[in-house]
User: Which sequence fits this backbone?
């Protein structure tokens, strides 16, 4: 049988890795897919022809991505450019041309996925996006297919490799934030705009996708609460460690009584949890299903070959379904498109979590009692409290508190009152806590 023709958009970290994997494992991939797969036409704005030639065989290379999408010889378009535009226009045009699409672009899917999937559905083609979430880990496949029997209770994931790499290096080696970020960029892990990694936007893109797959709701990136790691200080990492916790940047999607929580933020988690020990660029996603219980998926979340592993697996999937009736395919968002629910995504004020708090307070009798009194009046109970030694010559001391679960709005009220006390200095550091049990 004739090989299937790929049109490849982008020849950077992931594009280059995809050429390598398709070439290196060509024979095995063809045995799995049932057909050979060749890169018929590729485009990139900038590339080094010699480097690309060293990776594998490409029929034709140019700099016009639309020429690839309009090439009648191309059966499947693989979008590895990134960003919102022109990725959106390219993908929509590929769909209009009746071509299947594979993409690693979580920004595109999180923001424009509803539009893209509707267009694909109408045209009878598939858009596959395994590489968009947790790189090489087949988490999309797990949620859409492997866990299809379950009512999903919650998901908690380390889903940004760059952020996890930074936190790990800061904790283990005391390295400087900017220095570790520069290394992550040099290794090809970071987004084109690294603030997407550091400020949690990339993780929020991925969590938006996971939330839809888990709960059968439309993609709603604008409702996903997003807090990054740029405010994490070394002393909080150390204090959390003394109390038996690690700080991880988590994406959490949870079904609560009154709606769905979608939130990305630094989180204290008990250090003995497997996921607390996922370090460096590795990602992990913990999924709690009612039938299966907790399941954990672990692997490389970024990098050329791990991401290409997911891209090529999607290509194989698409080749296998070239002969499948469109109505029998795995739905883009795991649930049939007519069955998506309008369950609300909760505002952060309505979300309940436990807290780690660090206040800076005057070292004087009665101060602690005053703070505890305000927390009590707002219905917040304290699980642990520690007063640290003052630095030499300092009149104020760090006070560390762990609270039980409380609604975010109650914590906001309590902290506003506490920060207004004369004996309390500056802003409180607050980091949410999760046990990730049950
Ligand atoms: N790097 C990773 O580890 C990783 C992991 C998972 C997903 N992703 C996603 O994969 C995608 C690609 O990431 P990357 O790290 O390979 O990026 P990259 O910057 O290394 O490569 C981008 C490629 O696209 C080309 N390009 C940019 N604009 C273009 C245009 N208008 N027309 C034609 N070509 C154009 C560039 O020349 C380059 O070859 C992004 O969506 C990213 O979020 C990356
Ligand atoms: N910048 C992303 C790439 C993988 O999606 C990360 O560091 O996780
Ligand atoms: Na994946």
Assistant:
């Amino acid at each position: 049988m004739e090989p299937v023709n790929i049109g490849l958009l982008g020849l950077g970290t992931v594009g280059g890795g995809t050429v390598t994997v398709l070439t290196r494992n060509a024979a095995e991939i063809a045995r799995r897919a049932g057909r050979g797969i060749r890169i018929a036409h590729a485009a990139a704005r900038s590339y080094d022809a010699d480097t690309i030639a060293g990776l594998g065989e490409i029929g034709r290379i140019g700099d016009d991505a639309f020429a690839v999408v309009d090439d009648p010889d191309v059966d499947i378009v693989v979008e590895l450019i990134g960003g919102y535009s022109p990725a959106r226009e390219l993908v929509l045009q590929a769909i209009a041309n009746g071509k299947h699409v594979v993409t690693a672009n979580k920004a595109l899917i999180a923001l424009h996925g509803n539009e893209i999937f509707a267009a694909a559905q109408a045209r009878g083609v598939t858009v596959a996006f395994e590489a968009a979430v947790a790189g090489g880990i087949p988490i999309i496949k797990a949620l859409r297919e492997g866990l299809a029997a379950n009512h999903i209770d919650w998901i908690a994931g380390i889903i940004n490799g760059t952020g996890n790499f930074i936190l790990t290096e800061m904790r283990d080696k005391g390295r400087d934030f900017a220095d570790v970020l520069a290394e992550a960029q040099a290794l090809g892990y970071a987004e084109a705009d690294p603030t997407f990694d550091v400020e949690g936007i990339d993780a929020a893109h991925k969590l938006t996708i996971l939330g839809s797959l888990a709960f059968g709701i439309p993609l709603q990136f604008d409702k996903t609460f997003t807090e990054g790691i740029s405010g994490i200080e070394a002393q909080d990492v150390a204090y959390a460690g003394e109390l038996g916790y690690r700080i991880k940047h988590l994406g959490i999607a949870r079904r609560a009584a009154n709606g769905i929580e979608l939130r990305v933020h630094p989180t204290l988690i008990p250090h003995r949890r497997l996921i607390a020990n996922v370090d460096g660029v590795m990602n992990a996603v913990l999924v709690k299903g009612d039938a299966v219980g907790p399941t954990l998926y672990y692997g490389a979340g970024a990098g050329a070959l791990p991401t290409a592993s997911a891209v090529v697996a999607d290509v194989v999937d698409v080749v296998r379904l070239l002969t499948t009736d469109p109505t029998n395919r795995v739905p883009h968002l795991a649930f049939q498109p007519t069955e998506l629910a309008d369950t609300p995504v909760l505002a952060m004020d309505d979300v309940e979590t436990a807290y780690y708090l660090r206040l800076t307070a005057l070292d004087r009798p009665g101060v602690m009692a005053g703070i505890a009194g305000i927390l009590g009046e707002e219905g917040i109970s304290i699980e642990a409290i520690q007063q640290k030694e003052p630095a030499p010559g300092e009149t104020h001391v760090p006070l560390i508190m762990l609270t039980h679960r409380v609604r975010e709005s109650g914590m906001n009220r309590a902290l506003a009152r506490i920060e207004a006390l004369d004996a309390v200095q500056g802003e409180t550091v607050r980091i949410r806590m999760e046990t990730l049990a049950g």
In short: The first helix runs from residue 13 to 24. The longest strand covers residues 245-256.
